[in-house]
Amino acid sequence: MHYNFSFLCSQEGIIAGTLNNSATNQTQTIEGMADKATQRAAWTVAGKSRPIMETGIVNLTENTAPALVHFEDGQTQQWLMVRLEEPAAN
């Protein structure tokens, strides 16, 4: 299963964007925060409390980086985030 994220982080640390599940072609809004003190960023689907995805702020600038995904049942998985090139305009 592949998830595509597209988001921005404001100067205040507010994360906003979209999540697309490529298996179902379902797109949802994501929201979260980046904390300058802990250097962590965390986000989830808007209106949901889980799963929460988190990573280091510096990881958001890398082409590949690990992230933790915390599920409602208490399970945590390590996922790999991979930056993809924007598709060329037709």
Give an overview of the whole structure.
This protein is mostly beta strands and 90 residues long. 0% of the residues lie in helices and 56% in strands. It contains no helices and seven strands. The chain has a seven-stranded antiparallel β-sheet with strand order 1-2-3-4-5-6-7, with no helix packed on it. The protein is globular and about 40 Å long.
Helix-strand layout with pairing:
Elements: E1 3-9, E2 14-21, E3 26-35, E4 40-45, E5 52-56, E6 64-70, E7 76-82
Antiparallel strand pairs: 1-2, 2-3, 3-4, 4-5, 5-6, 6-7
Give me a quick take on this structure:
This protein is an all-beta fold. It is 0% helix and 56% strand.
Separation, N- and C-terminal Cα atoms: 26 Å
Assembly category: single chain
Quote the average pLDDT.
91
Outline, from the CA principal axes?
Answer: globular
Widest β-sheet, arrangement of strands:
1-2-3-4-5-6-7
Beta-strand share of residues? over 45%
Q: What gyration radius follows from the Cα positions, in whole Å?
A: 13 Å
How many runs of DSSP E, i.e. beta strands?
A: 7
**Major β-sheet profile:** 7 strands, antiparallel
Low-confidence stretches: none
Helical amount among residues, as a percent range?
under 10%
Category by helix and strand content: mainly beta
**Total of helices:** 0
Q: What is the H/E order?
A: EEEEEEE
Keywords:
90 residues
